[in-house]
Amino acid sequence: MIAAGLLVAAAAALAVPGKMPTPPFRPGGGSDRPPGSPPPRMFVRLAMAAAGITGGGAVAAGLSGTHLVVGLVGTGAALVALRLVHRAGTTRAAARRRESVIDLCEALVGELHAGQPLVRAVERAVVVWPESHGVAAAAALGADVPEALRRLSRLPGAGGVGRLAAAWEVCAATGGGLAFAAQQVLHTARAEAASDRLVQSELASARATARLVTVLPLVVLVAADGIGARPWQFLLSTGVGVGCLGLGVALALAGLWWIDSIAASATGEG
Predict the structure, then answer these.
(1) What pTM, to 2 d.p., does this model score?
(2) 3-class SS letters over the chain
(3) What would the pLDDT profile of 186-214 be if each residue is shown by its tens digit?
(4) CA 160 to CA 199: how far, in whole Å?
(5) Smallest Cα–Cα separation from 159: which of 260, 21, 34?
């Protein structure tokens, strides 16, 4: 029995890939996911591995099926919570970068209108966004600045920098001034940021409602336990109760994940 449990746990652990795939590059700016962040498929495989490890550990320890289901429910809840926290962090970082794109374009337009040379204007503009210092280095060394801008645009929320790269290339090919083109990129970045803020404000109520509905069953259980109904004993010590617990948690987490996925798709981060 112990050997079988350990074998299941080991097989599940091997299901997790050791190396993350490189995010695909989009010349127009942006990528399918943030560089270095686990892809959605990774979380599915991680959930399968964690479930296998939990099941293997339970078999190895000789625990009952009830304890196994409770362990799997807890593991699934933790993994979903981890995924939602990761997505929330990515959303916040993307919002900050959208504002940084505006700051960079404003600084660059201001320096160019002030008569600064192009390289000097770039070096002074990138001060407002530390992540963009690679662009200044490329400009100072005479390297491919549009390519540096496109690399920067792969970061979540920095897709607007890809337009600045295209504007740079057009101006370099036609001999036009970069100040006017950067001004147009700035207008577009401001419009996108305003639209994103509007979408986020509209989605905030839906997200809050989904989280409230997810927490309400726990509040009801605590209240029932307070009046002596003993719901935890039913849910954790009987087969029917454990089944209800597993199904309820699964449906609640699925609903929360669904709402969060809709919100991420609406903001272009799904």
Answers:
(1) 0.62
(2) CHHHHHHHHHHHHHCCCCCCCCCCCCCCCCCCCCCCCCCHHHHHHHHHHHHHHHHHHHHHHCCCHHHHHHHHHHHHHHHHHHHHHHHHHHHHHHHHHHHHHHHHHHHHHHHHHCCCCHHHHHHHHHHHCHHHHHHHHHHHCCCCHHHHHHHHHCCCCCCCHHHHHHHHHHHHHHCCCHHHHHHHHHHHHHHHHHHHHHHHHHHHHHHHHHHHHHHHHHHHHHHHHHCCCCHHHHHHHCHHHHHHHHHHHHHHHHHHHHHHHHHHHHCCCC
(3) 999 999 888 888 888 888 888 888 888 88
(4) 18
(5) 34
pLDDT tens-digit readout, 222-232: 888 888 888 88
Tokens linked to 39: 């892809």
What CA–CA distance (Å, rounded) separates 182 from 164? 6
Q: What is the pLDDT of residue 186?
A: 92
Type of residue at 31: S
- How far the first Cα of the chain sits from its last, in Å, is 42
